[in-house]
Amino acid sequence: VAVLMDSVASVNKGIKYAQGYRILAYNGSERQTVMNLRKAIIARVPEQKDYLTYQQPNFRLKIGDYFSRMEAQQVLNQISDLIPNAHIVQDQINIPKQ
């Protein structure tokens, strides 16, 4: 049993991604707007990872890696005054290294 548990643990260490949630903070074409918003969010919740992507002509700014919708909602409540139209989206998230 111990050997089996060790092999399961070693396989699980190799998993880097999972289905989860992120906060979609911005989706638009204004580069300066998204950069200013990114700075403001980082100042408010510095422990959260941000993901800025560009697919011509739109920038998308997503915040965090959350396993549950409740986790994402707690952070969204902290930044909702900065981005009132932000919302939670399902996404592939990065699993934090232990």
Task: Compile the SSE list and pairings.
Layout (H helix, E strand, L loop, with lengths): L1 H12 L3 E12 L2 H14 L5 E6 L2 E9 L2 H11 L7 E8 L4
Antiparallel strand pairs: 1-3, 1-4, 2-3
Structure description:
The protein is of the alpha+beta class. 38% of the residues lie in helices and 36% in strands. The chain is built from three helices and four strands. Strands 2-3-1-4 form a four-stranded antiparallel β-sheet, with helices on one face. Strand 2 and strand 3 (58-66) form a beta hairpin. The longest helix is centred in the middle third of the chain and has 14 residues, at 31-44. The protein is elongated. It starts with a helix and ends with a strand. The mean pLDDT is 87.
Task: Give structural attributes.
alpha+beta, 4 strands, 38% helix
* Count of discrete alpha- or pi-helical segments spanning 4 or more residues: 3
The biggest beta sheet is recorded as: 4 strands, antiparallel
Strand tally:
4
Shape: elongated
Give me the secondary-structure category. Answer: alpha+beta
- Give the DSSP E fraction (strand runs of 2 or more residues): 35-45%
Stretches where pLDDT is under 50 for at least 5 consecutive residues are none
Helix proportion: 25-40%
Strand order of the largest sheet: 2-3-1-4
